[in-house]
Design a protein that fits this description.
α1 links the parallel β1 and β2. This protein has 242 residues and is an alpha+beta fold. α1 packs parallel to α3 and α5 crosses α6. The protein folds into two domains: 73 residues, 3-Layer(aba) Sandwich (Glutaredoxin); 146 residues, Glutathione S-transferase Yfyf (Class Pi), Chain A, domain 2 (Up-down Bundle), CATH 1.20.1050.10. The structure holds glutathione (GSH) and 2-acetamido-2-deoxy-beta-D-glucopyranose. GO terms for molecular function: glutathione transferase activity. One of its GO terms (biological process) is glutathione metabolic process. Keywords: Signal, Transferase. It comes from Linum tenue.
Length: 242
């Protein structure tokens, strides 16, 4: 195999964006050095290599940095194009579709799930979570709309990209682990077998991939972390609304 060069990944123990890159590197069999950042005390390396956003993940390949998880995934696919699996299809129409869905995950699904957890970023969500019963169900319904779209997209398919795992699957993959964590904290069901059979099937298929299964952050640590983040957001929101 050709020399991989020096590959270093800046991430955190829990970063869902970082996980996308971990999976891509591991599935393609690319050896790399992993550096866990403390985001409350960012390293000089992070400030130097991602001065624009100072966010993880950052991939450093032979001293050059690549930022933004979806951009990193494409870089990995192009740089190690000989290593299967191929993360973006060859066909331009299919490539466009893969990029479209990856963007959809970031702009809609992932964001709305975080907003649901925080119940603060959107006034409508805030309302849903400070009120009871029917209105809370309506807050959940807006996320349900996006999940329904994904359910339809996945129907009859193994992966979002088709037969093989691809970039949109990486973009959505964190859902498999984090949705149950959010469900536990919120005490409600977001994804279920009955309403989301294809999504549930896809979740199982994703978690059965050994490289993915072995890379999840510890569940109890995640529950503690996200519950604390949520409490902090809710307290701040209450304080600022008097
Ligand atoms: N769009 C970015 C998002 C990355 C991101 O939000 N990273 C978080 C950790 S999960 C971060 O580094 N936050 C540090 C900060 O905002 O200062 C990507 O896809 O890479
Ligand atoms: C911040 O990180 C540096 C090393 O990168 C370390 O020397 C320092 O003690 C850390 N500061 C705090 C407050 O954790």
């Amino acid at each position: 195999m050709a020399d991989q060069g020096e590959v270093k990944l800046l991430k955190t123990w829990s970063s869902l964006f970082g996980l996308r890159v971990v999976w891509a590197l591991k599935l393609k069999g690319i050896p790399y050095e992993s550096v866990d950042e403390d985001l409350t005390n960012k390293s000089d390396l992070l400030l130097q290599y991602n001065p624009v956003h100072t966010k993880v993940p950052v991939l450093i390949h032979n001293g050059k940095s690549i930022c933004e998880s979806l951009v990193i995934l494409e870089y990995i696919d192009e740089t190690w194009s000989q290593n299967p699996p191929r993360l973006l299809p060859r066909d331009p129409i299919q490539r466009a579709s893969a990029r479209f869905w990856a963007k959809f995950m970031d702009e809609k699904v992932n964001l709305e799930l975080l907003e649901l957890l925080m119940a603060q970023a959107l006034p409508s969500m805030w309302q849903a979570f400070t009120k009871e019963g029917r209105e809370q169900e309506e807050g959940v319904a807006s996320i349900a709309e996006n999940l329904k779209l994904l359910e339809a997209e996945l129907e009859g398919k193994k992966f979002l990209g088709g037969e093989e795992i691809g970039i949109p699957d990486f973009a959505l993959g964190w859902l498999v682990n984090l949705v149950p964590v959010f469900e536990e904290i919120l005490g409600l069901k977001i994804v279920d077998e009955e309403r989301h059979p294809s999504l549930s099937e896809w979740s199982r298929r994703i978690s059965d991939i050994p490289v993915i299964e072995e890379s999840w952050p510890p569940r109890d640590k995640l529950v503690t972390k996200w519950a604390a983040i949520r409490d902090h957001f809710l307290a701040t929101a209450r304080a600022s609304s008097g």
